[in-house]
Amino acid sequence: MTVPSIILVDDHTLFRKGLAELLEREGAVKVAAITGNPAEVPSLLRLHRPDVLILDLNLGGTDGISVMQQLRGDDFTLPVILLTVSEAEEDLARALRTGANGYLLKSMEPDEVVDAITRAARGETVVAPAMTAKLVRLLDHKGSETPSVLETLTQREREILLHLAKGESNKAIARQLDISYDTVKLHVRHILAKLNLSSRVEAAVFAVEHKIAGK
């Protein structure tokens, strides 16, 4: 299996250098570049073409979400993980709503971060275990809509929703269902639109919370 490469952006010099060394020492992640200057990110992405971009949520005069939104506007489509000390529900909600592929905490163990990076590189969305309960609470207000909303899903969409609940990537789902990768992407897009959700993580939690597997 190919070792995923990353670019790490954090405005605290000791932290970014220390984390980079820890990740390299784990041997399962290649650190292509580190920087504390968000303005350098576009050129670093073009130069190194990493598998995953890791952004600190708070970056001095700006924040990781704003940087991510600008990159999306410039057609950068690689997975983006926000790394932060914030356990605030509103920060988690904002990150996922604006397209982050992950929300990790700086208190996590290095091997947990490595595992999350590897999964993000495969196309999965990752959230720190400590944030799961908060994510569920964020989605609670949608529970009353469940019966009618579920009726809008096709059988194939329900099937794919079950795979999303298992944290599987689009490629893995395509292989298991013997359909194309692009077809899976289209179904996922339809599922999120029909359920009024913003990310694969929300879809997975929705499926688990409402026991879709038993329907």
- Oligomer state equals single chain
Summed over residues and divided by their number, the pLDDT gives a mean of: 85
CATH class of the largest domain: Alpha Beta
| Name given to the CATH homologous superfamily of the largest domain | Response regulator
Radius of gyration: 17 Å
What can you tell me about this protein's structure?
The protein is an alpha/beta fold. The protein is built from eleven helices and eight strands. It has a six-stranded parallel beta sheet, with helices on both faces. The protein has a two-stranded antiparallel sheet with strand order 4-5. The mean pLDDT is 85.
Topology diagram in text:
Layout: E1 5-9, H1 13-26, E2 30-35, H2 41-48, E3 52-56, E4 58-59, E5 62-63, H3 64-73, E6 80-84, H4 89-97, E7 102-105, H5 110-121, E8 126-127, H6 132-139, H7 146-150, H8 155-165, H9 170-177, H10 181-194, H11 200-209
Parallel strand pairs: 1-2, 1-3, 3-6, 6-7, 7-8
Antiparallel strand pairs: 4-5
Helix pairs in contact: 1-5, 8-10, 8-11, 9-10
